[in-house]
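Q: My collaborator sent me two sequences in one message, no labels, and asked for predicted structures for both. Can we handle them in order? The first one she listed is below.
A: Yes, handling them in the order given. First sequence, followed by its structure tokens:
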Amino acid sequence: MKKMKKLILMSIAIFTMNQTFAQKIKYARVPAVIKKAFVALYPTAKASEWELEDENYETKFTLNDVEQSALFDKTGKLVETEVEIMIGELPKQAAEYLAKKQPNEKIKKASKITDANGVVTFEAEVNGKDILFGVDGKFIKIIKSK
């Protein structure tokens, strides 16, 4: 249990750091190893946007009409993926938390985040903040949106 909690907290720390220092970059500035890794994982997708987040590279893309993003380290290793989900797909406990703690706020969008170790977290964007939940729907943290 402690190991799982540690992995979740590490994932959140990485995610939070990446949220803080992102800057958009042109495709030409993306290293070849990153482009190759992206194409290997998503051969039919076309990246719509690239960002440099500290030393990591994030691309946003649409695959099968679903908005997604993938974060790679500088060696081309996948760090995490984020897939937009329907708001109703948030875990029940997360939905209950939001109804109680944010009763007058609308959820703008929801996402499922999976890190390289397979640890899943959920994100609900509410009023300019990203509210993170564990796979069980338990509240983890609130961070300011990009």
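Q: And the one she listed second?
A: Here it is, processed independently of the first:
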Amino acid sequence: MAALEAEVKADADAQRARKEVVMQKMRAQQAEQVELRRRQQELHSTQKKLPAPKREVQRDDDDDEDRGLGGALELASKANRVKNELQKAPKRGDKSWVKSGLASALLGPVGWLYAGSWREAAPAALAYLVVGSLALKILPMLLLWPVFMIGLPLSGIAGVVYALQYNRHGGRQRLFGKDKPKELKSGGREA
């Protein structure tokens, strides 16, 4: 029985010793953290005492952050307006942005003819067909796939924008240039 008690006492002493070592390590870490905080505060307080030109640079950084936040808010509000416009119920005579986007994504600029300005869509579609047919005769299809993988989604986005512009203005609108204002004598719409 005495041997068991001695063994339990030795085990308890070993646990206390391990506990004390861990506690000493924790105290040392806390002391290091306190010292680190003190040095950081000291550095921070010396940074506030920098000459005037350095402060101006810091103010510019703050202004950039404010502009970044403002830009993010502006982008979010634009995204919200686009979302609302896409969810709006179509009126009679409106072009479907889904059809326009799919046609443009599948057919390239030929899909722009659905809602796009005739001045842009017709030459682009003709150029697309001519250049595409020549490229297919000269280049292997494997080399053209990267062009299609980038160009067709961009064309689909342009098709959606064409349809949204059509619905917003009630007629075909140019994307890649501004129409010069003209007086309409016949009362009809011009593309």
